[in-house]
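quick one, 462 residues, struct below
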Amino acid sequence: MGRAKKEVNMTEGPFLKKIILFVIPLILTGLLQCFYNAADLAVIGQFRGELALAAVGSTGALTNLIVGLFMGLSAGVGVVVAYYMGAMRYKTVSRVVHNSILIAAILGVVVTGIGVALAPMMLQWMDTPAAVLPGATRYIRIIFCGIPASMMYNYCAAMLRSTGDTKHPLIFLSISGVVNVALNLFFVVICGMDVEGVALATILSQYLSAVMVLVYMARTDGVLKFSFRKLRLNKLIIKKILAVGIPSGIQSSLFSLSNVMIQSSINFYGDVVVAGNAAGGNLEGFVYIAMNAMYHAALTFVGQNVGAKKYENVKRITLYCAICAAVIGIAVGGIILLFGEFFVGIYASEPEVITAGLTRNWAILPFYWMCGVMEALCGAIRGMGKSMTTMVISLLGACVLRVVWCKTLAVWFRTIHMVYWCWPVSWTVVIAASIVAFIYFYRQMVQKQRLASIMAREHAYT
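---
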């Protein structure tokens, strides 16, 4: 079993060209996903009003909190596949595929149960406004029923990306996204449904994308070929996935936990600000997703080169990814700011809500490129197998800092701007710590390689 033609060798240059070709479909995939999420908010905001928009928008941080822990394991899957692809251990890659799909199915059901049971209590804990709470509860319970499909798709997409195939996830998402938008309009506009309509449209499209990616992997001839008969759990494979995936999942959940705390601070300012924040935050999602493609590029390219023991390529790949992330962040963020009133107006027609959305964007977007640099560095360090380090850095530099900020400065100086500024400050701290960690681990890898080379030569002479 060897590489299929569509699988990319990421251990040989030209790296910048390969990185760009790798991320273009990935960026389009992410932007399409954001577009479809935006369609949910736009349809519900325009046809059902401010309260329905706030109900849908206020659940995002909570959903990410619960899903993030388990979805973070997809990073572990991606790193392990990339490592064994670089080492050309293709039979092991196949075992990783079948372990990962089974893990995704099991955890998907677990997360659904947790989410449905605890969502109402957690929404109350977030101080969700009373007028918004009933709609938010109905919406999020339906959304959690689609988690098994979402996890299956994301795990499979991570494996496809790790072999260099970013085209097929784009195709699957495009099809399911069109279905999502069509069902949004059907359920909300034609059938007259409320938040339940956009939630139902979302989960149906998620199950469609999961089915498509599994069918494709069952029919492929490459190393990712899937067969139900090979589904089984292997302790060594699971251990390797968890070694990277658990810190990644904890990091994702900690970020989401800090965002839940921030959302609680935002909820203090009432329904209008919550609705505007939802619109502004969704627009920022377009920037984040575009930049986050560089996280996956760094994770995959570095992972393959570490697996192939070509450590000399790691620094150059990381630099390319960080620069590209910053350029993307500045370009996409600038476009949103330039046409901000138009974009926020897509979600809501009330002037107060539009103003609230613009307030968030102007406080955060000028600095959002820093988040992209942070993500690229995080992906590179995780691709080097140091997932625990990125978790600790994120815990202290972002999560703890944001929580302390919201409980101190955001309370002492009661302005929404003070709440929003916690993000740029945390990005600055995490970038600085990540640069130090990357330099340390890179030098450590190079020194070990040199020592091994010296010992090999000495052994040859004796």
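The chain has 19 helices and no strands.
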